[in-house]
Amino acid sequence: MTADRRRDDRDGASADAESTGDSNAVDPKPDGGYETAAAMAHSGDSGTRFGQLFVVAETEYRLSVRSRWALALTAIFAVFSLGMATFSGSDTSPAGFERIVASLAALVVYLVPLVALAFSYDAIVGREESGWLQALFSLPVSRSRVVLGTAIGRAIVLASATVIGFGVAGFLLLLEYGVGGFEAYVGFLLGAVGLGLAFLAIGVCLSTLAREKTHALGLALLAWAWFVLVHDLLALGVIAAFSLPDLAVSAMVLANPTGVFRGLVLGALGAGGDAGFAAVLAEAGLSTGTLVGALVVWIVGPLALAAVAVRRRRL
User: Fold this and answer.
1) What are 148-180's pLDDT values in tens digits?
2) Torsion sign, CA atoms 170, 171, 173, 177
3) Region annotation Disordered: residue ranges (predicted)?
4) Which end is more exposed in the chain, N or C (fewer Cβ atoms within 10 Å of the end residue's Cβ)?
5) Up-side HSE of residue 253: CA atoms within 13 Å toward CB?
6) Residue 34 CB neighbour total at 10 angstroms
7) What CA dihedral angle connects 182, 200, 127 and 64, to 10 degrees?
């Protein structure tokens, strides 16, 4: 009887073990049911790569919206554009509309680069100091995609704020002046978006190269001072002092994203606005396609440099 009882105990233990094994088979995986790190890291599927880029961009976009950056940027652009449109108004004619656009372009050259750099200088180094970047780099996601996704997420916020903020003033001007000359405002708005994206890319690149947040802020301020204040003054002085070929003048204009933006807007307005820079543009003779291509290079180039530099960054 004792032997039978032992046999029954062994059979029950075996049954319990089988039931335990079955229950373990349906338990969640240690990674939460997602793909393992090795599978994602070695996956060659392009959809997975774009999916990772989309996830990083969406996360950055949500963080920017949650931190009220989107609302703050939109408010800044709306207040300044409405103020400029109100106090620089003139006669209700296409010529008056173009004068307002020229005044807004002068404002954008100073305001948009400063706001874009302030929004992007901590994109990488700020996340590193908060510990978020270390956690993200520990995931099976390429560092380059992290940088590009971060830039894309912030670019969507900045572009949306630029369109909405300056679009409010454009809508009011459309009601007052009508459709005559409104195509110049549309060109100005697209140029402002491109200028903001160029300086956002520069800020992300500086944030990737800097080791500390304060260093990135200092580099961003130096970049703003160089591109907005110093470069054009030096270029105008050199052009006035020396007889330079057209190629050298064109290179000076294309070497500055603010110069490219002025070329696009003043070209659409018939070179109305700043007489000194208008003379430089007339001497350079750059086409709209060349200026647009240069602005694209100013957006893509710094991001490509940041994507390469982040691979060598030590956390």
Assistant:
1) 999 999 999 999 999 999 999 888 888 877 777
2) positive
3) 1-38
4) N
5) 31
6) 10
7) 0
Tokens at residue 81, please?
A: 């554009």
- With respect to residue 46, please indicate whether it lies within any of the assigned structural domains: no
CB 251 within 8 A of CB 263: no
Range of the domain at 295: 61-312
CB 204 within 8 A of CB 216: no
- DSSP assignment of 122-157: TTTHHHHHHTHHHHHHTSSS-HHHHHHHHHHHHHHH
Q: How far apart are CA 106 and CA 273, in angstroms?
A: 8
Return the closest-CA partner of residue 117 out of 267, 228, 245, 1: 228
Number of domains in the chain: 1
Counting Cα atoms < 13 Å in the Cβ hemisphere of 14 gives 6
Cβ-contact 41, 126 below 8 angstroms: no
Q: Determine the Cα–Cα distance for residues 54 and 65; give it in Å rounded to an integer.
A: 16
> Which range has the worst mean pLDDT, 99-113, 197-211, 283-297?
283-297
Helix axes 94-120, 182-209, angle to 10 degrees: 10
C-alpha 191/C-alpha 105 separation (Å) is 9
- Give residue 12's pLDDT: 52
In a domain, 37, yes or no: no
Which pTM was predicted? 0.81
What pLDDT shows up at residue 29? 39
The amino acid at 258: T
Question: Is 48 within the bounds of a domain?
Answer: no
